[in-house]
Amino acid sequence: xxxxxxxxxxxxxTLQLLRPxxxxxxxxxxxxxxxxxxAKQVYVEVANAEFAIPGKKQTVSRIxxxxxxxxxEVQQLLTLPPNSHSNADEEYHRASRVITGWxxxxxxGDGKGHPRPLSMEGKGGSFSQLVKRYSGDIPVRALLxxxxxxxxxxxxxxxxxxxxxxxYVPRNGSVPKLRVLGADTADLIxxxxxxxxGTPSKPRYQRKLMYDNVPLEAxxxxxxxAAAEGxxxxxxxxxxxxHRDRDVNPVSKGTGRVRVGLGIYQFEEPEPSD
Length: 274
Fold this sequence. Notes:
The chain has 274 residues and is an all-alpha fold. Among the domains are: 6-78; 86-163, Arc Repressor Mutant, subunit A. Helix content is 54%, strand content 2%. It is built from 9 helices and 2 strands, in the order H-H-H-H-H-H-H-E-E-H-H. Strand 1 and strand 2 (161-163) form a beta hairpin. Helix 5 packs across helix 6 (127-135). The mean pLDDT is 88.
């Protein structure tokens, strides 16, 4: 059997990763035409930003050659306003920082993962103080409304605010969950890209375990075990990173600015019977 070429391997992988994405697109009535237009836009954005000839200014003609689009299509797409996801991403990360701060900061609980209900204002560790410390200048009410909307916090009968989720994993509504689709999947693919084309001696951590003949009962047990163990590891790493993040700990020393993190996910699907 002949060995697959890189293009053949990439084509097969693209088909594989597109299937769950297209499933989501179809569920949300996004047509192939809309997807194709989005793909064109990204081809032009990436070719323009990252694939210029060193020492030369990027040109419409080169982008057209790289992307396979016409010069007219490239020119039209270059005139579109920048397609920035920074607002949605920032909301996602700010909400996550607030929740993790609530879990581990002794001002807002026991510092060991047991947060206490918080008053909106006041001394001794209020929700407003928590947001200002871990989320910068975002309006406190706006962040509270977002956390309530996605099911991460709730208003208690005594007027305080209680944390009901240990991470920013939206429970209610599809919009915030679809934002996670873009943010988290992009990070995973970027890591795979780096491990293929980056520095061979310094790969980024990327591992997966999988067994394909597991009983339903064991799969249910594993779901609970994976959630508990994964959460414990993430909270441990969160404490380490928060101590070194300048937004949370302004006295942290060092040069440059890097975004780092670790993602964990559990997967499960039925296998065909023999």
